[in-house]
User: What shape does this take?
Amino acid sequence: MRCEGFGCEESTPNGEKIVGCDTIYAVNREHFLQNWIPITSAHELLNILNFYDLPFAVDVVLTGGEPLIYANEPIFIEFLEKLYERGHKITFETNGTLSVDFERHVIYKKCIFALSVKLSNSNEAFAKRVKGEVISNIALNAKEVFFKFSIDADSINAALEDEILEITSFSPKTKVYCMPLGGTKEEVEANTEPLVEFCKAKGYNFSDRLHIRIWDQNRGV
Assistant: This one.
C-alpha cells in the first residue's frame, strides 16, 4: 500500500520529494532499494539487538511497511523463534491484509498483533485495505490482538465511527486504539487534541506516536 492520502512527505536519496505514508523509505522500492540491506540469515537480524544495552528480555515490535510480507520466509521464522527463546515479547504492526498460517508456523500464536487496518483517509480502496477473513483469523489465533487506527483531524467526522465499526465488526470484542497521523512532530501535535476528544466521546483508547514526538523525523537514533 502507498497510503498517499496520509500526505507525509519524504526526500529520496537523490533529493526528489515524494508523498505517501510515514514510512515511505521502508516500502518504496523504486526510490529506496539502494538503502535496504539484504538479509541472508536469522543471525544477522538478531545482531541488531547487540547494538543496544538491553535487559534480558524486551518488547520487540516489528513494523513496516508491512512485516507480514515475510511471514513464510524460513529466515524470518527462525528469527522469530530465536527471539521467543530468548524471552522477548514480539508484536507485529500489520495492516491486516495478509494471511498468517498459524498451524504451520506456531510461533505466530505466541505473538501480539496490532491490527493497523487502513481507513479511507489512506486513499486506498476498501477492498484492498479491509480483509475481514484475515482480521478474524488473526484475532482468533494470536496470543493477543488490538486494533490501531491512524487518524488525522480532518477525518474526525460523523462517518469515522461508522468506518471503525465496520472494520471492528470482524472482531467486535477487540480493543480499539486511535493514533494521531503524522510523519513529523508538528503534524502529530496538530492531530492529537481533536483525536483525544474523539476517543473520549466514543470510548476508544488513545495511542500516542511517541517516537515522532521525541525524535521528529530523525531515524536510527
About this structure: The chain has a mean pLDDT of 91. The radius of gyration is 18 Å. The longest helix spans residues 185-202.
